[in-house]
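We give its fold:
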Amino acid sequence: STSIKPSFSRSEIISRDYLKWDFPMIQNERSNLQAILAEVFEFSPADIAANRTGEISAAQKARITNTHYANSRAAWELFFIIFGLGLLGFSAEMIRTGNMGIKSLLTYFGVTAFFGLIVWAFILYYRHQMKRTLREGSAQLVEGKIQLITERGEKMQSRYFCVDNHRFRIDEYKHFAALQQSGVAGRKVIAYVSSPWHDLLSVVLQA
């Protein structure tokens, strides 16, 4: 009997060899990008496993709590710095004009107390949302492509990591730069987002 050996064109052989060597490279690139996302957004494989079941892991709950209290402290620190500088400027102006009096001071403190109440109201609202998330919240799936957006204001820039219609602010420039340099923009991902507290929990690259 005569055996027939399959024949391949040169282009088919090159394509086959390219795929043989390129597949591990693709896998390795995906792993590297996934590692960068995990480092920037502070999640682990255990967190992803919990998020896939619709739950928020214990580590993520601790991170949400720490972030909330850190932001609350920062808000009060900023408020008191502005209050202190305002009081110094107000006192200097009153001394300069010779118009220093109890009525002026009471007016200043009244306005300050009003804005302090506004700050406290915002903190209480976000604390309530945070506690609801810890008590009864869930991880919701969002699917889409990554976008990295920079919005420029008059005195500052805001940087965002976006998936579908969801935007998440990135405060540290080094994290945003790492994402830009990695080439992760445009990649299709599944992101897990907490609810009702809107926070990015984890991100999984798609094939």
About this structure: The radius of gyration is 27 Å. Residues 1-25 have pLDDT under 50 and may be disordered.
